[in-house]
Amino acid sequence: MKPRLGAVIVACLVAAGCGESLAPPSGQYEIVLLTLPPGMTRGEALGISPSGLIAGWTAAAASSGTGEDLPCFCGERATIWVDGVPTVLPPLVEGGASLARDINDAGVVVGLSVAATRCGQPSVPCGYYVPTRWVNGIPRSLLATDSGHNGVATAINGPGVIVGRFGGPDTAFSWEGGVLTPLPTGGQNGEALDINDRGDIVGSVGFNRVAARWRNGNLDTLEAPLAAFGSSRAETVNAAGDVGGSLWGPEGLTIARWGPGGFERIGDPDTQLALLGLVLVAGDGTLITTVQRGRPHAVVWRAAGREDLGVPPGYAVSGAMGINERGDVVGVSVFSDARPHDARPPQPVLWRRR
């Protein structure tokens, strides 16, 4: 599950100030600030289909939620953009919150809905979240029965196969034709984060996380120098099967790609660098992510260095959250460039590859 990066990068920037110098934008991307639905003041774009349909969330006011992952949602509403026009989708529970994580070219949307509404009651635990699928704007739970555990649908491919995680401990799953199937994890917990059209699924298994790929329902942990890093995570996969991910441990953070030649480390380990969001891989193998050493920025990650994607006029901070095969990126921008600690509400952004 990709966190609500707007909230995360606001906290990071306030704590860390501004610092790292990145290569300036090359002009390879056109930056588009997405329109918010009437009455909404903030949002994030989280997923984009091959043809450019966009999924995310918008809200009228700040959420009271906290936490890095699957926070307690209060005001968020699943939202899609078609040809730049936003539409708010209904949640499973009237008055509840929801989030759209991904969308395919058929317009089928996946994400989560909160199963109970407890906004304004800080002493009451947050309701659990249900992996949700929207078809023609109508939400349906992917679970056959109410498990009472958290769950989220993280990605959908062109044929309509959905992946995600649910339960306690987390169980990676795929969903097809109305049937939810737990993925093998070797007896450990697991998460499924992305799927391509040929059915390759990527994610991680184990409490300490080991990068994983499932093909034809079979688990394959991805080779990585874990003795040096300790943990790895496979986060996105393109049509060719190239996988983008990350490694972290005592040597610091590094970005990884698993391609036809196997494991490839992109750049040197960095103990001062933080990774926000996921590592995204485009159809040509280009890696894009959000990094922070001071001010968080969405960047194109190359062996020779990191290139800033740029921010909309008037903004100072950016985060990349989703990518499609041609390399269009969606995410969020926060903060005024004139006053770096003036917390403008997070705004959904499209970086359209030229």
Chain-wise SSE layout:
Layout: H1 5-16, E1 29-33, E2 42-48, E3 54-59, E4 77-82, E5 85-88, E6 98-103, E7 109-114, E8 129-135, E9 138-141, E10 151-156, E11 162-166, E12 171-176, E13 179-182, E14 190-195, E15 201-205, E16 210-215, E17 218-221, H2 226-229, E18 231-237, E19 243-249, E20 252-259, E21 262-270, E22 274-281, E23 287-292, E24 297-302, E25 305-308, E26 315-323, E27 329-336, E28 347-353
Antiparallel strand pairs: 1-28, 2-3, 3-4, 4-5, 6-7, 7-8, 8-9, 10-11, 11-12, 12-13, 14-15, 15-16, 16-17, 18-19, 19-20, 20-21, 22-23, 23-24, 24-25, 26-27, 27-28
Describe the protein in words.
There is one protein chain. This protein is mainly beta and 354 residues long. The protein has a single domain, classed as Neuraminidase. Helices cover 5% and strands 49% of the residues. It has two helices and 28 strands. The strands form seven sheets. A four-stranded antiparallel beta sheet has the order 1-28-27-26. A four-stranded antiparallel beta sheet has the order 2-3-4-5, with no helix packed on it. It is globular. It starts with a helix and ends with a strand.
